[in-house]
Amino acid sequence: MAGFVDSTVKDIDNRLSELKLEVTKLEAARAALVGGRRGPGRPAANGATPARRPARRAGRPRGRRGGNTRANQALELVRTQPGITIPEIAESLKIEPNYLYRVMPKLVDDGQVTRDGQGWHPTKAA
Questions:
Q1: The domain spanning residue 88 has which CATH number?
Q2: Per-residue confidence (pLDDT) for residue 8, from 0 to 100
Q3: Which of 63, 71, 76 is nearest to 102 (CA)?
Q4: In the chain, beta strands by DSSP E
Q5: Each residue of 18-27: pLDDT tens digit?
Q6: Global pTM?
Q7: d(Cα 56, Cα 48) in Å, to the nearest integer?
Q8: Is residue 109 in some structural domain?
Q9: Helices (H), strands (E): how many in the chain?
Q10: What domain count does the chain have?
Q11: Is residue 60 part of a domain?
């Protein structure tokens, strides 16, 4: 009887190892099809540890692209469409308008745009 139990346990252990390997392959295939990231701060559904990101480069602020990309895009829209409003700029850039309420005053401070009522205009120097 002990031999039967030992061999059955060994068979079960072997099958579990095969199934774990199969699960790993299936999870990798699923992640490739639907995308492996679930979003920041959300753990994986299966309890697996997430892949580590490479270390960020020194001297570069976290989460910033640099170059005032949105400000430059907004400025270009103001130059091509003088009098454009913040909601119109936001719609063109496919972003929320509240972000532009921070960007546009910085462009005013830099002397690149002026505000006339609801519309924005490029300055003569810009």
A1: 1.10.10.10
A2: 92
A3: 71
A4: 113-116, 119-122
A5: 999 899 889 8
A6: 0.47
A7: 23
A8: yes
A9: 4, 2
A10: 2
A11: no
* Size of the chain, expressed as the number of residues it contains: 126
Same domain for 30 and 74, yes or no, is no
Q: What range does the domain containing 97 cover?
A: 69-122
- pLDDT, residue 39, reads 54
Distance CA 123, CA 77 (A): 13
Q: Looking up tokens 């997430």, which residue turns up?
A: 50
For residue 57, being part of any structural domain is answered with: no
pLDDT, tens digit, 9 for 90 and up, residues 53-109? 666 666 555 555 566 688 899 999 999 999 999 999 999 999 888 888 888 999 999
Question: Which residues are 116's β-sheet partners?
Answer: 119
Residue 6 within a domain: yes
**Averaged over 10-33, what is the pLDDT?**
89
**The token pair that represents 97 in the structure block:** 């308008």
| Residue 84 phi, psi dihedral angles, 5° rounding | -65, 145
Token pair, residue 100, equals 């532009």
Going by C-alpha positions, the residue among 86, 69, 70 that lies closest to residue 120 is 86
Residue 42's pLDDT band, with cuts at 50, 70 and 90, is: low
Cβ(125)–Cβ(79) below 8 Å: no
Residue 38: predicted pLDDT = 56
